[in-house]
Structure formats: C-alpha cells, structure tokens
C-alpha cells in the first residue's frame, strides 16, 4: 500500500515564494517602494511553509503599501507593525470583507508583528472580532486621567500639543494619520460650532464635540493669521507623517496609571456617540469608515431600551418628539442668524 510522502519544508522553499512574489492587489509603483521591506519582514516572521509565506506576504504587502503611501508611515517595523496601524488598515481598507476575513487578517498580522517588532504589546487572544480586538473606550475616570496627562506636560507647548491631540481624537474621532495631516485651514469655526474638513482617502466633514471646541478655536485664532496652511497638531513641522503623533505621546510624561493611546481616544468618541443614540450610518460617515460593515464591531455598545421607550419608538411617539425638537432648533438657528446679521 503506497503512502503519500511528506516532503519537509525547507528555508529555500519559503525564500523562493517570498522573493518571487508578484502582488495582485498592490500597485506596481507602490510595490517597488516597499518590496524589500515587506520581503524581509515576512521572512523574519518565520513562516512554516511556502503556502503560509504566500498568505503572509499577500496581507503584509497590502497593509505596508497603504501605510507607507497613503498614511505616510516610515518603513520601520516599530512604526508599521503596531496595534494602531493594523487597526487603521483594517478599518479603512477592509470594509468590503466579511467579519470572518477581517478577523483572520488581523490575527495573522498580529502574529507577524509579535515576531518582528520587539515593542509589540502583549494582547489577549481574539475570541470575537467585536470585543477582543476592538479598542476599549476610556471610562469617565480614565478620560479624566488622560486629560490630566495633557495638562500635566512639562511645557506650555507640550500641553498645547496634547490638548489639540485630545480635541481631534476624543473630540472628533480622527485616525492618527488624519491628526498628523490636518491643517489649520481645514478647521472651520462659526456660531454653530467647529467643523473639521478631513482630507485624504476618506474626505469628510466632522463636527467637533462642543466641550472640545475652545482649544481648536484658540489654535485657529493664534496660528491662522501667521500660517493658515500650518499643521493643526504641532504647527511648524514640514511633513504629515503620523510618526510625529506617536513620537510625541511616547516621549511625553506618562506617569499616570492610564496610558494615552490615540486608538482608545478615537474609540471613546465613537462609543460616546453610540451611547447618545446617534444612528450608525451617521457615526460611520463621520468616522471615515468605508461602509456600515466596518461599524459591525461597535454594535455591542448600543444599549438596550426600556420597555416603555421600546414601545414608544416603534409607535412613532419619540420620532414625533424629535421632529418637533428639530423644528424648534431650526427656528432658533434662524433667529440667531438674523441677530448676527442685524
């Protein structure tokens, strides 16, 4: 009786797959810019077979090409193979995939990052896409500590940078790369509040939460007359690389028990809007998500309704109240505009 021979995998098999890989989902020009970095990263992750090497390089090539070209990260393992970048790539580029595929991508990238980035943190195993890998929002007490972190920086300039960072993340839900790229001219302030006109792959306009507006109003008032095209975070720099944000946080005074993390700041903004009952499609649009499928992992934050509220919603009572409220708000806005014109 013949038995199939098991051919052992050799390093040459893996190397051959990696060195001769031709990407199907990455632009040729982008591939040439990142090819060597991607190949070395995959080889150093020690794939156990040629098939696994092919799976790894396919995913790594897509993420690194996006991170380098679109998000502006340097080709550095400690900058790209991080929780933030992996999460941002999944959120911004994988919205068309199912939850199962996104979970698989995330798990494989995490496994690779553990091998090749000595600074990659220890995180729990993924039990579900909606919880284990979803960045946890700050509680009210934790957010108070993060605000204390910002106010406790050693110089006025560093305090201002930290406060702007919080205004753009906790106050408007921007990704790290969007924080780095936002310019003062992208901030619009009027009688109704502050708007951020986010450029890039996911252009959109985001209203800032009222409690975070003053920092951005002061920024516009002080910087716009001098240089309207200056970057909002850390004006005076010459490039929009997101490493400037992570470097600032890492070099800051972090003596408190709560670690300041931009992904948790953004998560706090998202979840606070969920708790306020804002419809998913509005949050997803303001958050720069590709589609509502990207919002799936946040759904478990929606609260359960009390029986009376549940009945009223389906009976249209609360919607009628909201329509009345919106009509009153519109009337107040029109009256305010008339006063301003007078």
UniProtKB/TrEMBL annotation:
GO terms for biological process: DNA integration; DNA recombination. Keywords: DNA recombination. It comes from Luteococcus japonicus LSP_Lj1. It comes from the Bacteria. This is Uncharacterized protein. One of its GO terms (molecular function) is DNA binding. Residues 331-342 have a biased composition (Basic and acidic residues). Residues 323-342 are annotated as: Disordered.
């Amino acid at each position: 009786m013949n038995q199939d021979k098991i051919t052992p995998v050799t390093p040459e098999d893996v190397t051959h797959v990696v060195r001769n890989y031709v990407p199907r989902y990455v632009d040729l020009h982008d591939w040439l810019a990142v090819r060597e970095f991607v190949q070395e990263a995959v080889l150093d992750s020690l794939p156990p077979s040629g098939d696994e090497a092919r799976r790894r390089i396919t995913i790594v090539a897509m993420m690194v090409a996006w991170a380098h070209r679109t998000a502006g990260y340097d080709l550095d393992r400690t900058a790209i193979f991080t929780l933030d970048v992996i999460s941002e790539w999944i959120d911004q580029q994988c919205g068309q995939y199912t939850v199962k595929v996104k979970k698989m991508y995330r798990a494989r990238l995490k496994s690779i990052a553990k091998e090749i980035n000595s600074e990659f943190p220890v995180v729990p195993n993924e039990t579900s896409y909606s919880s284990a890998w979803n960045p946890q929002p700050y509680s009210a007490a934790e957010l108070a500590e993060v605000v204390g972190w910002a106010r406790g920086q050693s110089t006025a300039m560093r305090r201002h940078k930290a406060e702007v960072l919080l205004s753009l993340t906790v106050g408007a839900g921007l990704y790290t790369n969007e924080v780095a790229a936002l310019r003062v001219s992208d901030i619009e302030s009027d009688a109704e509040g502050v708007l951020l006109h986010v450029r890039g792959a996911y252009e959109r306009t985001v209203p800032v939460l009222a409690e975070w507006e003053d920092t951005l109003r002061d920024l516009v008032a002080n910087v716009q007359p001098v240089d309207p095209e200056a970057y909002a975070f850390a004006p005076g720099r010459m490039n929009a690389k997101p490493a400037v944000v992570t470097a600032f946080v890492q070099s800051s005074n972090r003596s408190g028990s709560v670690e300041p993390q931009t992904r948790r700041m953004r998560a706090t903004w998202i979840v606070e809007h969920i708790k306020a009952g804002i419809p998913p499609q509005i949050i997803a649009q303001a958050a720069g998500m590709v589609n509502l499928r990207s919002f799936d992992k946040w759904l478990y934050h929606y609260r359960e309704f009390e029986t009376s509220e549940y009945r009223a919603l389906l009976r249209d009572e609360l919607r009628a109240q909201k329509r009345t409220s919106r009509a009153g708000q519109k009337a107040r806005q029109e009256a305010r505009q008339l006063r301003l014109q007078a």
